[in-house]
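dumping the sequnces here before i forget
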Amino acid sequence: MNWKKLAAAAMAVFLCAGCSGTPEQVQEHPQGGEEEKHEATTFAMDTIMMFTVYSKDGEEILIDAEQEIRRLEHLLSVTMEDSEIHELNHKAGEKEVHISEETMELLSLGKSIGKETNGCFNIAISPVVKAWGFTEEEKHVPEQEEIDRLLPLADTDDILLDKENGTAFLQKEGMAIDLGGIAKGYTADKVAELLRAEGITSGYFSLGGNLMGIGQKPDGSAWKAAVGNPLDAKDYVGMLEFSDCAVVTSGGYQRYFEEDGKRYHHIIDPATGYPAENELLAVAVVCENATRADALSTALFVMGLDDAAAFWQKHNDFEVIFITNDEVIATEGLRDSFTFEGRNNDFTFRIMERK
Ligand code: AMP
Ligand code: MG
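..and the predicted 3d for all of it:
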């Protein structure tokens, strides 16, 4: 699909923080360089992507950004038959395959974030995700016997990366990589790098809810996003201001199905092979690095509130908004940038302090 240019004179645009349809109005500043504002939207990596940049060369720069996304999709997609990941999965248990430096970098990062999060983030979880039908859109609860058989295939130690020779090998037949929890973040970092290299100092984009803000708005204020209410797609629980960083949300409300009255979502706890079940409904991670924000939002959601809070206490490079059934909790670093909105819902709010 080609860029569809949106009306440049639009008075407001919508930004969505990983929520299904919760809009936020970003008011345009009158001296905001309207004539230099360029917007575009496209569909790639199975999701809608929206861009706004301020530059007289914005139109050409956004075409370059789209090409960059297509290029990365051809490396990282699980479903595209000519992607490097597809080939790697196809040759599992059989043969190593040559991969690009970028695919190597992302696989290596995926493995290391897996270790760092005690296996909660797992790029080898694909066979289990497939068993739940999330890839074929034939969603169903698999037999326990099937989960027991597939879980041993989700061991990231069996992903062998040979950086010197530029090859990767999945040791066991039936193994497969799924970069669904990290690829959009990686793409966001690459696109931001390209936009900055082409001179963009003010812009933002959303890759299916993975938000990235470059610099600030032309009037010098921060970008703003609504953090969606996982219990009500039309509501939001607060507003987040951000600049020069990514905001990535993971939640069980984003993709799910119901069977026998129970809801099953798409984020799998690698310890059980079942959708992660804990008090968290959603997690938003704010981090300069979008790849890390993406992987961590998935991992923290799997961990549950206590382990995720302990993980945050040990790290200084990201902040989090946790949403449970009845609470919205923002970590200390977001004290001045997150504004809780509880008018239409029953959430209470608190700040999580550093110990
Ligand atoms: P996200 O929306 O970034 O939280 O990623 C969710 C997607 O990542 C799912 O649709 C799966 O493709 C994949 N996934 C599911 N569970 C995990 C997990 N525990 N670790 C890494 N990726 C996962
Ligand atoms: Mg993720």
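The chain has a mean pLDDT of 90.
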